[in-house]
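quick one before i forget lol
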Amino acid sequence: MSTTLLHPVKNFKCKPYPQGDVTQFFGENVPLYASVCALPGVCLTKGHNGLDIVRPWGEPIMPVQAGKVVEVNDSPKGYGKHIKILTEDSEWVYGHLSQIEVKLGDHVVPGQIIGRMGNTGFVVSGATPYWKYNPYAGTHLHLGRRMVKHAKGTEPSNLQYSTGDRVMILNYDNGSLGAVPITEADFEPVSPDLPPASPTLQMTLDSLENHAVASEKAGNHAQAAIYRAVKGLVKAFWA
């Protein structure tokens, strides 16, 4: 992987929390994914197959490489609302989005907003020390990479997208369906002159209200009331 990657979120630091923004690296939590594979109709990989990046709900997400949008989908048991982007050498997945800002076939470039932070699909909820940045447990971006070779003409392929693009996913039998590690060395360094990214009060309130509305739709009005009560506490203690 020789191409330098840009940042999927503002001032991204590919380091574990609290020194950086990553809460789960490639290959981690093998028992969790083994248990998920045991569920009927669901099978992931031997371990985590990407990076989990934590930022506030609704924060913009950008592509790390220029490419073509080859999938826009919603998988409730997997990546939830997600996008797949095909570049010269890779297929990238951006998962668990709250909102998708592109459409199938679009050509995108780094710096362009393609979606927003969310917690759709398979996410692990619960208490998190990152609550001020992640006030709604489970909110994160799953960023995954598979190395590919574009198939032209009669060249062999093992995947064809609805856009008509055909690829050969390399190392498909590596236990992660071709997914590969993404490390700090792959990303362009963050300029020390840039201030650290931080959530706004409004982002946090929007996050809590979003989940209050979702709770109401599910018929859980008590839970919705709790979310709105927390909004009042956040307003009082934000500073």
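fyi The CA atoms of residues 217 and 224 lie 9 Å apart.
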